[in-house]
Amino acid sequence: MKLNFKEKNRSQPDPFIFEDEGKYYLYVTAGEGVEAYMADDPFGEWSFYGIVTAFREGRDFWAPSVIRVGDTYYMYVSCDTPGTFQNMHVAKASSPLGPFADEKRLYDHFSIDSHTVQTEAGLFLWYAKDNLETDKVGTRIFIDRLIDPYTPANQPKEVVVPDFDEEKFTPQCTPERDWYTIEGPLWFTEGEWQYVMYSGGCYRDDTYHLGYAAAKSTDPDLTRVDFVKATEGGKFSPLIIKNDFEEGVGHHSVLKYKGEYYAVYHGRDYGERPADMIGDGRTARICKLTVKDGVITAERYQDRV
Fold first, then answer.
1. With contact defined as beta carbons under 8 Å apart, do 237 and 163 qualify?
2. Distance between CA atoms of residues 33 and 51, nearest Å
3. pLDDT of 10-43, one tens digit each?
4. Could you give all domains of the chain from N- to C-terminal order, each with its CATH number?
């Protein structure tokens, strides 16, 4: 089901949902900066607040996430700066609607799709970067400890890796080499289990999907947890993939609302994009998740309008 936006003609790629003091915020990919929305209820009407980043330089902002530490809000987002391509940055603000400024580049290499979390053991940054030293070269999910919100330990651990042809990023495949992509990590814990959900494959292909890995562990040091990818007898088994009413489903975040879990993801309607649509036509959608004993299932349904 698509989220209800007051402005009907905007795209919301890579939606990250964040609750703070009873209000809900949604941050999305945009070219000149991160765009934000706010709602009193995730199933209510979302109002558009425009660009909430105020970097000294940067363009092609990509896949933001936000965490509150004390009274400060930190945004982790990748962007291009002169001489760089999609390096991870952090910036801070005194409000969920920014402006997020005082930015710092965290890594000097391709690093995207952040999710920063805090446990009893400290702060941890989930993100995606390339690995060329493997038989399935491409983008994979890593975790790094944060010494403080602005300082990574620079000891990344590879967590989720590609296994299937459905996880190829076909535009970067060549006759000499295939390229695989697992990205968009989202971590949460429920009971005795921890979960990492992710996007796999290429957004242009029918096999673009959401999947997950799980670990039976309550260890708060997330760098010590070993996750196992969910499959069906060792075969490709996506959690969410295109269906009869939407395609291009991927990059998501997770919300626990009134005791139930929900995935907020982007997707495209079939058919031509409306002429007045701003952006590429990927819009934010929501579906209920059932999470129990290391297994996630998703319940999707078409808008009833």
1. no
2. 6
3. 999 999 999 999 999 999 999 899 999 999 999 9
4. 4-299 (2.115.10.20)
